[in-house]
Amino acid sequence: MAGLVSSLVKETLPNYLSNLPLPDSFGGWFHLGFKDWLALVPPTAFLAGIGYMSYLAFCPHGRPKPSGQANQKIRKSEPKVVDTIDIEDIAEKAAFCRCWKSNNWPYCDGSHGSHNKETGDNLGPVVVRKKGN
Fold first, then answer.
1. Under 8 Å CB-to-CB from 21, ≥6 apart: which residues?
2. What region does 126 belong to: left with phi over 0, alpha with psi -120 to 50, or beta?
3. Taking a C-beta distance cutoff of 8 angstroms, is the pair 99, 111 a contact?
4. Is the four-CA dihedral 109, 115, 116, 117 of positive or negative sign?
5. Active-site residue, 93 included
6. Per-residue pLDDT tens for 38-84?
7. Which residues in the chain belong to E strands, given as ranges?
8. What's the Rg (C-alpha) of the chain?
């Protein structure tokens, strides 16, 4: 196994790289043929992949940051948000928000869908229905 890696690093990779059609000047890029451009696709894709993985690893500003608070907008002036709904006031069934993003609080308005797409979460509503339905 060590011999295979050694051969790859000392011979195969340098030979491959030295045979790539890299022009000596900027104008040389315009004289490359189709086969030359095709030969440059694999190393370019490899380098782009390494660059993208490095970006994901070292640049966290591209990812959403958790705030630590679930409720970011519903009645923030209150010390605790509590809603009481009589079961008799509910139609045959009702969907209640669990993501704290609904504009129709405490009922679900589907806001969790965009939240789930942005964060990779799997939130959904609590569905309450009358017994027997």
1. 32, 36, 39, 40
2. beta
3. yes
4. positive
5. no
6. 999 999 999 999 999 988 888 766 666 666 777 888 888 989 888 88
7. 93-96, 126-129
8. 29
The DSSP 8-state label assigned to residue 95 in this structure reads E
DSSP 64: P
**How many other C-beta atoms can be found within 10 angstroms of the C-beta atom of residue 115?**
15
Q: Over 70: is that where the pLDDT of 20 sits?
A: yes
Written as six digits, the tokens of 49 are 């992949």
Given the residues 80, 93, 101, 130, select the one marked as catalytic: 80
- Point out the least confidently predicted range of 1-5, 72-76, 98-102: 1-5
Cα distance between residue 112 and residue 61, in whole Å: 22
Q: Which residue has the tokens 């370019």?
A: 44
What does DSSP assign to residue 107? B
Token output for 111: 């806001």
Rounded Cα distance, 64 and 115, in Å: 11
> How many other CB atoms are there within 10 angstroms of residue 80's CB atom?
5
CA 56 to CA 63: how far, in whole Å? Answer: 8
* E strands present in 79-125: 93-96
